[in-house]
């Protein structure tokens, strides 16, 4: 693949440490290279006296930025800010969505694990994103591009070669936001269904854990055979929890995919609607309202899961089997909670964007015209002059 006669370039922002070196060499670089990208990161440069110069140029010239932000590294976040300011297409990687600042959770973030059974998920996701970026089939956002009109922030200079490659816009192409709107509605419904499955499973395991607790409390530990009965009850509780963790894991994959659809297509819809058009203004207002409902429901659901996770974490130190089951549940819950947090952050992002655009339109309508009268007011509407 190439852009203007050159290979596509991917620039990776990440901490320099042995831990992340292996992530770069084994999980990040191979899928990007296989997708046709020239892959670099800051320590690829030989002239260490001018690393900052090369990093800035590397970011500005990159077709895709990959930022590993699992730990709050000052250099990585500074370089990420530069990438956003230059409007470079950026994907975030993290081993814990909870570690992301809330303002970034709604942007293209890929949660991954270094566990041997799950590492392939990251390479598959990066391959999909890299290929979609090369084909121009995916949109990227950032706080800069969302909330500052085009032209009000510094962009990397576009070459005439790149302009020629893109060609003029196709004026006959139908508005894509209609397709995206249908996708968003279907994805939101699917997401709500998955959230209901999580709630049902959580309520069921909560009831089971409560019953096991009552059974344990009813045992007279001084009676003959009490220890054996207690072990059987804790073994049954551990089995219940492992089954719950498997249920969550079965929900997590389709939930991640659905969240990706909602955030991608939802932003396509929001950014395509113009408040200058009455119909689209109404659609933007409706989208804002639906995102507010999603935001409220997400917070409520997340708080409930966090509370349950804390209660599960307290069930430790009884048996090794129960400790392992508790750990499995907490890992599974973390993935679901991360997806909910991504949805929350995205919903808030859309609400803020809608407020900004609808508010600007309202201010324009209220602003006085050149003659000093409110916009749209006619001379006939003025009070009668005394004769």
Could you explain the architecture of this structure?
The protein has 387 residues and is of the alpha/beta class. 62% of the residues lie in helices and 7% in strands. It folds into two domains: 165 residues, Rossmann fold (3-Layer(aba) Sandwich); 190 residues. It is built from ten helices and six strands. Strands 1, 2, 3, 4, 5 and 6 form a six-stranded mixed beta sheet that branches. It is globular, with a radius of gyration of 26 Å. The C terminus is likely disordered.
Which short descriptors sum up this protein?
single chain, 387 residues, alpha/beta, Rossmann fold, six-stranded mixed beta sheet, 62% helix, 7% strand, disordered C terminus
> Average pLDDT value?
80
Give a short account of the largest sheet: 6 strands, mixed
- Beta strands, count: 6
Number of helices: 10
Number of domains: 2
Structural class comes to: alpha/beta
Distance between the termini: 78 Å
CA-based shape:
globular
Rg estimate, integer Å: 26 Å
Residue runs with pLDDT of under 50 for 5 or more positions: 153-175, 370-387
Strand content: 5-15%
Short description:
The chain has 387 residues and is α/β, with parallel strands linked by helices. It has helices spanning 18-34, 51-61, 74-85, 119-135, 143-147, 160-166, 177-217, 226-272, 278-313, 320-366; strands at 2-3, 6-13, 37-41, 64-68, 90-94, 109-111. It has two domains: 2-166, Rossmann fold (3-Layer(aba) Sandwich), CATH 3.40.50.450; 177-366.
Provide the fold topology.
Elements: E1 2-3, E2 6-13, H1 18-34, E3 37-41, H2 51-61, E4 64-68, H3 74-85, E5 90-94, E6 109-111, H4 119-135, H5 143-147, H6 160-166, H7 177-217, H8 226-272, H9 278-313, H10 320-366
Parallel strand pairs: 2-3, 2-4, 4-5, 5-6
Antiparallel strand pairs: 1-2
Helix pairs in contact: 1-4, 7-8, 8-10, 9-10
């Amino acid at each position: 693949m190439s852009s203007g006669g050159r290979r596509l370039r991917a620039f990776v922002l990440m901490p320099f440490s042995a831990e992340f070196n292996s992530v770069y060499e084994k999980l990040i670089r191979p899928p990007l290279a296989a997708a046709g990208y020239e892959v670099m990161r800051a320590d690829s440069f030989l002239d260490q006296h001018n690393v900052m110069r090369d990093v800035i140029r590397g970011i500005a010239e990159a077709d895709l930025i990959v930022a590993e932000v699992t730990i709050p590294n000052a250099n990585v976040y500074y370089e990420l800010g530069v990438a956003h300011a230059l409007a470079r297409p950026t994907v975030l990687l993290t081993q814990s969505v909870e570690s992301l600042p809330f303002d970034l959770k709604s942007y293209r973030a890929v949660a991954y694990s270094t566990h041997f059974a799950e590492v392939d998920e990251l390479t598959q996701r990066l391959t999909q994103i890299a290929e979609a970026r090369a084909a121009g089939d995916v949109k990227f956002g950032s706080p800069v591009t969302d909330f500052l009109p085009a032209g009000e922030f510094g962009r990397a200079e576009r070459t005439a070669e790149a302009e020629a490659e893109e060609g003029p816009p196709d004026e006959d192409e139908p508005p894509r936001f209609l397709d995206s709107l249908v996708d968003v509605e279907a994805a939101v419904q699917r997401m709500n269904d998955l959230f209901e499955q999580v709630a049902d499973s959580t309520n069921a395991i909560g009831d089971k854990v409560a019953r096991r607790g009552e059974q344990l409390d009813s045992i007279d530990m001084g009676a003959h055979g009490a220890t054996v009965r207690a072990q059987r009850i804790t073994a049954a509780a551990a089995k219940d929890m492992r089954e719950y963790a498997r249920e969550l894991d079965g929900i997590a994959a389709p939930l991640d995919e659905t969240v990706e659809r909602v955030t991608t297509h939802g932003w396509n819809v929001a950014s395509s609607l113009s408040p200058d058009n009455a119909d689209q203004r109404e659609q933007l207002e409706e989208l804002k309202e639906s995102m507010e409902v999603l935001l409220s429901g997400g917070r409520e659901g997340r708080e409930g899961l966090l509370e349950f996770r804390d209660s599960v974490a307290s069930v430790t130190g009884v048996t090794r089997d129960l400790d392992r089951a508790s750990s499995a549940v907490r890992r599974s819950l973390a993935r679901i909670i991360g997806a909910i947090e991504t949805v929350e952050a995205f919903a808030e992002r859309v609400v803020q964007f809608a407020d900004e655009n609808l508010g600007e339109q309202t201010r324009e309508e209220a602003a006085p015209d050149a003659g000093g009268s409110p916009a749209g007011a006619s001379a006939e509407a003025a009070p009668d002059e005394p004769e």
